[in-house]
Amino acid sequence: MKIKKAIFNILGFFFVGLGIIGIFVPLLPTTIFLIIAAYFFAKSSEKYYNWLITNKYFGKFIKDYREGKGVPLKAKTISITILWTTILYSIFFVVTEIWLKILLIVVAIGVSWHLLSLKTRLD
């Protein structure tokens, strides 16, 4: 059982790390990684779970998502704007292969669809 808890703690911190990176990298979804981290911490460490869901920077996102309250409109707007800005910059100034440009557009559409499909909070 101790090995399982240790592995779950490692996975929890791994997903917290991905969530933090996702704050700055538009193609990585922050909230889902934090929710996965919360799952692993809930199974392994009450201390780390409480730390995560009460964290002043991202605890509210997890609680709101779990309670079905949705994502703030401002967060959606900023996410989609940054996503498309970076994708279009990459398409026009970085990537030369057409297949990669198409892949970037497909990814941007998929991420945008996902963000828009989430319940919106108007606060």
Blueprint (SSEs and pairs):
Elements: H1 2-24, H2 30-44, H3 46-53, H4 59-66, E1 71-72, H5 73-94, H6 98-117, E2 120-121
Parallel strand pairs: 1-2
Helix pairs in contact: 1-2, 2-3, 2-4, 5-6
Molecular structure report:
There is one protein chain. The protein is mainly alpha-helical. The protein contains 6 helices and 2 strands; from the N terminus they run ααααβααβ. A two-stranded parallel ribbon has the order 1-2. α2 (30-44) runs antiparallel to α3. The mean pLDDT is 87.
Features:
6 helices, 123 residues, 3% strand, 2 strands, mainly alpha, single chain, two-stranded parallel ribbon, globular
Can you summarize this structure?
By secondary structure, the chain is mainly α. The chain has helices spanning 2-24, 30-44, 46-53, 59-66, 73-94, 98-117; strands at residues 71-72, 120-121.
Low-pLDDT runs of 5+ residues are: none
Strand percentage: under 5%
Question: Which sheet architecture does the biggest sheet show?
Answer: 2 strands, parallel
Give the rounded overall mean pLDDT: 87
